[in-house]
Amino acid sequence: MAINKNSTGYTMTFAVILVIICGAGLALLATSLKKLQQANVANEKRQFILAAAGYASIDSLKKMEMTDVEKIFDDSFTEDVYDKDGNVIEGDIAFSIDIVKEYKATKRSIDLRRYPVFHYSNAGVERHIIPMAGNGLWGPIWGFIALGKDMNTIEGVVFDHKSETPGLGSKIADDAFTRMFTESPKTIMDGSKYVSVNVVKGGVKNPEHEVDAIAGATITSNGVGAMLRGGFTPYMKAFGLLKK
C-alpha cells in the first residue's frame, strides 16, 4: 500500500522520528564534549590562579599548552580548605570547589561555607591565593587575590564576571582596575584589627585599605567591595592574624 505523504499521520510520524534523531545526536555530542569542557574550565581556573600569583599574565598563560599549565600548577601549589573559623577541613580538595557555586549554595547557611586557598611557591616567591565570589549588577562576580609571604599584603589580583555591562562593570577584569590593588601596598589587617580592602566612590581616603570605584559601575563596584570585606575573615583566622 502506498504511503500518503500528505497525510497528517505521516507528517506527525516524520516529525517525531526527526526529533528523536536530533535529540539523540545532541545528547551524544554533549556527552562526548563534556570531558573537554571540564578540562577547559579547569585549565582556565589554573590560569587565573597562576596569574594572581604573578607567575605570568593571563594572555601569556592562554598561549601555553594545557598540559604545561597543569604541570606548572601542580609543581607550584599546595592547598588547604578552611571552615568559617579558620580550621582546616580534612579531606576536602580545594581545586574541586567551584567558588561561585559554593557562594550561591551557602548564602542562607554561611556557617557551612568552605574556604579554599592555594599556597604558591616558585623561584623563591611565596603567595597565598584566595578565591572568592559575590554579586555584580547582572550576575556573579569572582576573584583570586594573592597575599604575600606575610599573608596580609595584596600582591596580585584577578577578577572576572559572568555578565557585567561591557565598558562599565566588565572593567573589574581590566588591568587599570586590578593594578590599583597592587601599585601601592594594600593590606587586610591594620595591626590586630580586620579592615580588608574596600572599593569607594568620591576619592580614596585610606590608601592602604581602599581603591577607587569604577565610574558608571556603582553596583558592580559595591559588589567587589562587599566580596572583599566578607571574604578574608576565615583566612586571617587560619593564618593566625585574627583571633578565632
Write the layout of secondary structure elements.
Elements: H1 8-53, H2 58-62, H3 66-76, E1 77-82, H4 99-105, E2 115-122, E3 125-135, E4 140-147, E5 154-161, H5 175-178, E6 189-190, E7 193-194, E8 198-200, E9 210-212, H6 218-231, H7 233-238
Structure description:
The protein is an alpha+beta fold. The protein has a domain at 78-238. 38% of the residues lie in helices and 21% in strands. The chain has helices at residues 8-53, 58-62, 66-76, 99-105, 175-178, 218-231, 233-238; strands at 77-82, 115-122, 125-135, 140-147, 154-161, 189-190, 193-194, 198-200, 210-212. A five-stranded antiparallel β-sheet has the order 1-2-3-4-5. Strands 6-7 form a two-stranded antiparallel ribbon. Strands 8-9 form a two-stranded parallel ribbon. α1 crosses α3 (66-76). It is globular and about 85 Å long. The relative contact order is 0.11.
Task: Report a brief summary of the structure.
The protein has helices at about 10-55, 60, 65-75, 100-105, 175-180, 220-230, 235-240, and strands spanning about 75-80, 115-120, 125-135, 140-145, 155-160, 190, 195, 200, 210. It has about 240 residues and is an alpha+beta fold. The mean pLDDT is about 90.
Attribute tags:
21% strand, alpha+beta, two-stranded antiparallel ribbon, globular
